[in-house]
Structure formats: C-alpha cells, structure tokens
C-alpha cells in the first residue's frame, strides 16, 4: 500500500493543472447590452471556451430566446451552418439550419432568478488551414418546463478568430447580470 501511495503521489505532482486560462469576463450592467463582444483574443491557445449565463431584457414571460455567435465581425449567414439536437422532457428533435448563426439560448425576463446556461467550445480557433467548428451545450428551466440543446456549428472561413460577438437572433438585449467568461485552452505539450 505504501508503494502505491508513493507512486500515486508522484504521478499527481506531474499533472498540469494550468490547461485553461481565464482571458476575459463580461457582466451586463443595469442598463442591459445589445451584445457581448470579446476582442483582441490572443492566438496562443489551441481552443477557446465561453461559459455564460444569459437572460433577455424583454417583457416576455419565461420564453427562451435564440442566441447567435459571429466571428471577426462576420455576420454573413451563408458563412455559418448549424446542427442541433434538443429535448424538453416530453419530446425530442433534431435538425440542420444552413445560413444560420443560432447557437445558444437565453431566458426571458419573466422570472428574475432564471438564466439559461451556454457552454461554447471553439475548436482550433487560430488554425488558418481549416474551417472553425463550435459545439455548444445550452439549457434552461422554467419551473417545470425547459429544454436542453446540443448545437454544432461550422464557420466556413479559415481566418484565425480574434473576436467573438454574442447577440440575439431577434428582439431583445441582454438583461442585467448576464455574464460570459472566455477561457483559452492550452494544447498538449
């Protein structure tokens, strides 16, 4: 047992715990925000991850609103394609949307304590030899109703991503306390 404990202890000392670096955090203030934008993203990581909680500054009830991403200020719908799979407890669905930047959800402002969550993985964002792929896990709950959605998206450009904007597909702006954090993920060394 002592040998196993020494071996396990020495292995744990060699684990790199700094594989994810916080880069930027944006918290929406009382006046709301039309979008959330991460700029001047360094190209020194292998992947990016955005973790966010979102609420719409709208007068609607607890309805969810679609969020969308754009890279490097490119809002041309034909440069993006999306696949999705969702479930809400009683039904499931899947589909594909061409010419579409939708890739996440936000709660309506009907209940002050409810936010939707979104985790975006942006893979190989600085690689200029391939299109960019995003996968997103998104979900919300409204006291008995709700939905979980898995999105995948391709940005059909080979440019390195140096800025990311998150906004609404239609309608509202972000409500107070919506927050998004950008992380850089290091590659294997």
Give a quick precis of the structure.
By secondary structure, the protein is mostly beta strands. The chain has one domain (21-185).
Overall helicity: under 10%
Radius of gyration: 19 Å
Note the total helix count.
Answer: 1
Count of the domains: 1
Order of helices and strands: HEEEEEEEEEEEE
What structural category do the secondary elements indicate? mainly beta
The total count of strands amounts to 12
Q: Output the strand order for the largest sheet.
A: 1-12-3-8-9-10-5-6
The fraction of residues in strands falls at over 45%
The mean pLDDT is 84
How many angstroms separate the termini?
32 Å
| Major sheet size, sense and barrel closure | 8 strands, antiparallel
Backbone shape: globular
Task: Please explain how this structure is put together.
This protein has 189 residues and is mainly beta. The chain has one domain (21-185). The protein has one helix at residues 2-13, and strands at 20-27, 35-38, 47-54, 64-71, 80-87, 92-98, 102-107, 116-123, 132-141, 146-155, 164-168, 179-185. It contains one helix and twelve strands, in the order H-E-E-E-E-E-E-E-E-E-E-E-E. Strands 1-12-3-8-9-10-5-6 form an eight-stranded antiparallel β-sheet, with no helix packed on it. Strands 2-11-4-7 form a four-stranded antiparallel β-sheet, with no helix packed on it. The relative contact order is 0.33.
